[in-house]
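Hey L., structure's done. Input below.
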Amino acid sequence: MKLTAKPTARGVGAGLAAGAALVLASACTGSTADPSGSESAADPVDVVITPGDGATGVRPDVPLTVEADGGKVTDVQVVQEVPGGTASEDAQTGEETGEDGGGDGEGGASEADTVTGTLSDDGATWTSDWNLVPGGDVTVEAVVENAAGEEQEYTAQFSTAAAEQGNALELESNFPTSGDTVGVGMPVIVNFDLPVENKSRVENSMEVVSEEPNEGSWAWLDDQTAVFRPKEYWKPNQKVAVNMRLAGVDAGGGTYGVENHRLEFEVGRDQRTTIDAQSHRMVVERDGEEIKDFPTSVGKANTRAYTTTSGNHLTMEKYANLVMDSSTVGVPVDSPEGYKLDVDYAVRFSNSGEFTHAAPWNGSLGEANLSHGCPNMATSDAKWFYENSYMGDPLEVTGTDRQVEWDNGWSYWELSWEDWLAKSETGEPDTTDDTGTPGSVHGDPQE
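Output:
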């Protein structure tokens, strides 16, 4: 059971101040009172809120608890206030989202900022699910019921440790961004500004929720990049949200997260493209039906650089006009195999320079492979594909002897589910049904 609390502001700042003390004294203790003023026949209830009333310098990654010995916790409200809170800025778009927006663009407190908690089976202990904002003033209001059904409210106020400059884990960028419509293969890519040591705690602080539940997992490409990929492609035409509850998480080495973010995007129609290097055809299917069959010409394969990569790709970005320069793939422009071309309607599907694009100069579309590695198309066909592609649409290439690397672009679907899961620090799959993440986000109170 989760009891929802509503914070009023998000914190801004860096890591915890050096030497900040952890205070775990009880906030308040006592027994329930008879609302009528007469003595209750029920046994008294001892209530302890941790951290305690008046505590200062509390570590934000230590769990907040309400314990009712002899009774049941029926409600908990948590308010976090940060002095001088200002409008937050989305790390990817730079758009202001409002004082409490948390990146959801809707005003009011973001769901990513909401402190929820889990109630023990006997109802006697409530424990917060997420960490608290560094440098904040926290008010806890708990309602406890005794054996006779009488309720009493208890309140505790404390403050979390002040922020230390230079040890702030910030969200540097994310793909997709809020408001995007994406393809069914789209991963969630999160880039941090500092290395993460406690990867499991950071993983568990990022919850992915979809309207159509799926199984997925975070994987770490390096110390600053985490990617969420579902086990199977997303079901089409649904909304997905990512609550990145990074505030207060201990990322290791004295670095703490300082701000929460919420990302909301939509999975569109199910469009998948197959390019066959042997038949020189590019087939597009939408929602299981073939809708286009284009002639194409892929890499001539006289060098590795000019061999189109086979395997499972995703469309990544697109340009109405693009300068293609062979020097970006290690071939000097002034060499016999070099080139520098202006192309139209380019759609990227790898980081090794591969795009579908218009090539009106190629007279062998549908007949031979003569390109420098990019699938060449007629201008009208390339324009259609450009206009009808979402970021994250699956694109599979077959028929060449160069296999795409799983980390070349967004070719994450090259890995089996077992191999992908092995790149998670927790090693546990996550179900996108709003039931929480696989493990704890909290640190050990004795650390």
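Helices lie at 199-204, 379-387, 417-421. The two ends are 28 Å apart (CA to CA).

-- N.
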